[in-house]
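Appendix B. Chain record.
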Amino acid sequence: MRYIIIGAGAVGGAIGGRLAGAGHEVVLVARGAQYEALRAHGLRLVTPDGQHTYRLPTVDGPAGLGELRADDVLILAVKTQDSEGALAAWGPVPVAGGGTAAERLPLLCAQNGVEGPRLALRRFRHVYGVCVWLPATYVEPGVVSAAGAPLTGILHLGRYPHGTDGTLRRIAADLEKTAFEAPVVADVTRWLYAKLLTNLGNAIRALSGAADSEESEGLRQRVYAEGESVLAAAGIPYPSTEEAQARRGDRITLHPLPGVEPGGGSTWQSLSRGTGTIETDYLNGEIALLGRLHGVPTPLNELLQRLADTFARERRPAGSLPSAELVRLADEAVASVQEPSAGRP
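C-alpha cells predicted for this chain:
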C-alpha cells in the first residue's frame, strides 16, 4: 500500500516519517512554507531515538500525482477547519481501473475532535476514524518532533461510525511495524469522544501558557467537568480516565529532545505559527454545540472558543493572556449564566 499523508504537519509528518522509516511508500501533501521546505530539504523527524531525514515525494495537491493507485490509502491529517477543502480536492480524483478516490479508497481521519469523519462520510464511502494519541510538534517548516518513547504514539483505528474490516487490519499491521501501536476497535467513536475531552484544555495553554500553574490546572478541571456534563446529557459514551490510562500505560513517555523547545499542543502550535485559523470551533465548540442541543450551559467552553478564535484571527502571540486574567474572565462567564427558571414566578 502507498500512504498519502494529506496534511504533513505534526501528526501527519510523524505518521508519514515513521511509515517511511519502516520501508513503506509514502507521499506527503503540504502547502506554503511547509511544502517548500519538504521539497527542498525533506522531512526532518526528531525523536528520542535520533534525528531522521526522509526525502519523500511531496505535492501540494492531487494534481501533483495524477491518477491514483488502487492500493493507495489516504490519511487526512489537516486540522478540522481545513477538512472541507481537502475532501473536495481529493474526492473526485480518478483511480486506476475506474472510479474515484471517494468511491474506492480508504480515508483515515487522523484528527482531533469528532467532526472530521462525519464531514468525510458526506463524500467518501470508506471512512475510518483514528483516535490520535501522538504528542508531536510542528513549528519550524520541514521539522516535526515527536517526543514519545518507547512508542511514538497509539492510534486507535475503526470504521466510522463503527465496525472493523480487513483493510483496517492491514493498515494497522503496517503501523505496528513502526513505533506505533494501532489497536483496531469496533467503537472508535467512543475513543474519539474521550480524546475530545482531553483536548478541551488545549486552548488554555495556547492562550495563557503556564501549563503547570495552579490557576491553569484548576480552570482545566472545570472545563473538563463541563464537557463531561454535556456528554452525559447527550448520552454519549466514552472510556473513563482509568480505562484510557490503563490502555496507554507507560508506552508513551515524553523525553526532552535536543534543540527542540517543548510544544504546547496543536492549538498552541497554530497560534505560534500565526496561521490565522484554529481548530477550537471543533473542540470547545463541539461541547458548546452539544450543550445547546441538550440544554446544558457551557460558559467556560464558549469563552475559550471565543478567545481562541480572536487570538487566531488577530494573530496574537501564543501564551500572551496572563493565566490570572483568563481565570477572572472564566469566573465572570460562569457568573453571567442565568438559570433557565430565573425570573419566572
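Further analysis of this model is presented in Appendix C.
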